[in-house]
Amino acid sequence: MGLLKRFSKNPLTLLLCVIAGSGVGWLLPALGLHAQVLGQVYLALINMAALPLLVVATFFGLRQTLLLPQPALRLLMILTLGVGLVAISAFLGAVLGLLTGAGSNLDAPTRVLLGMMVQTAGGEASHTTISLYGADLLTGMQAASPGFEVVPDNFFRVLSEGRLLGVLIGALIFGVAFAALLKAQSQALMGIFEAIYRALELIISHVNVFIPVLVFGMAAYFTASTDAQTLQAMRSFLMTFFGFALIFSGLAMTFIWQRSGLSPGAVLSAFKTPVLISLTSASASASIPDTIETMSSKLGFSRGLVELIVPTASVFMRSGAAFYFAMLAVFVAHIYGQAIGLPEFLLICLGASLAAFASAGHNSLAVVGFASVVLSMLNLPIEAALVLFLAIDLICEGPRNLLSLLLACVLIVGVSKGLPSAPIENRQASDIEFPGSVRFVFSKASVVAMLACTLVLALLITLVGIGVGARKPAAEATRSSVLETPASTQPIAR
Prior knowledge:
Layout: H1 2-8, H2 11-27, H3 29-34, H4 36-66, H5 71-100, H6 108-125, H7 137-144, H8 146-150, H9 155-161, H10 164-179, H11 183-207, H12 211-225, H13 228-233, H14 235-260, H15 264-280, H16 288-298, H17 303-315, H18 319-335, H19 342-358, H20 371-377, H21 382-390, H22 393-415, H23 444-483
Helix pairs in contact: 2-12, 4-10, 4-11, 4-12, 4-17, 5-18, 5-19, 5-22, 6-21, 9-10, 14-22, 15-16, 15-22, 16-17, 17-22, 18-19, 18-22, 19-20
């Protein structure tokens, strides 16, 4: 199993799977379209274990965070910095979109192609049938009222339905009550949660072994379902988004390295698994166990904060989505020739941040629909985002997840200041030398002398044992001769 895990997390293996999947999707489009089933099976298995793990990890993290010094101030710092990082991501996305001229430097054929795609989508949308009366009134109320999504009325129902936002809210509420219990009252429940925690981590670890199969299926499906002209038309946006997402991810990694006190190689090695999982899986929850292990056991940050922030940030802190929405809005505005002044710029930053928070609990293609928040604030057609960006969202999901993951780790580093470090595993791999360590070096002569002394000591012990054994029978014979003296030799009393 260890060899299979290393094989599944090897970048060369994943690259070969991408090439093979793209070849299958290009040569056998019908087979490539059915390859999406592999990704659906993977996501189903991941969500089966990731949702309960999110709940249990939040319990442990909140309980341990409340035991830290100044817990209220620490929680306020987490909230403030989390919102600030999302807003900064939206600001940077808007600035870079304007600086690179996203959508404004397209040639005439590309504009014609994009216009035809938008018009085709608009014509198909005009024939869509909308049902005014649903069979389930409660389902309609939930869809119309965001309160049902934010504050769940039944924790087990949102858990079974997989609504991440409702699950996390319920977990936080229960976690506060759980943390208020005395240690004696919660000891048995802590043991049960610990066993569940380890079992779910083991499930996700084994499911992630099949990431190469997922990558192969995603590459085959994307190649078979995506038109080459669409990629060509969206090439400028893709190159800009990918490039800056990777640059900001590198800057976040550099910040973590400087605060960790470890070597660059040790930090890169620690982040290898969660980074690959974030880039290749379409789920923001798939990398939760490996990220917790990386930040706590390998980099030494407080495990309580790590277990609280990582699951919470995977749902709420969508920094990568905010960056994506801001660049998307600038791109669409430039396509339609709308000038972006200071008021429009501020609306893009605000709308992208709100859309990122509104997308909490949603993954993959559902995230694109929340671009309507920022586009509607600019009075831009929403259909443009749906048709243009749904076609490329599959390959944009990885950089979004990676940027959100690393900025969540930056948040952990920022709020961990002043806290004691957790024990670090594999400390030798970080090139840290411990002062006062003692090393024993033996030469060949000293080894020979030690063996000779050992043999002499063994011989002396053997001789002493033989001497003691030979003396014992003689002593026993003397004692028996004294006891068996004849009665005639004794004096007779007269």
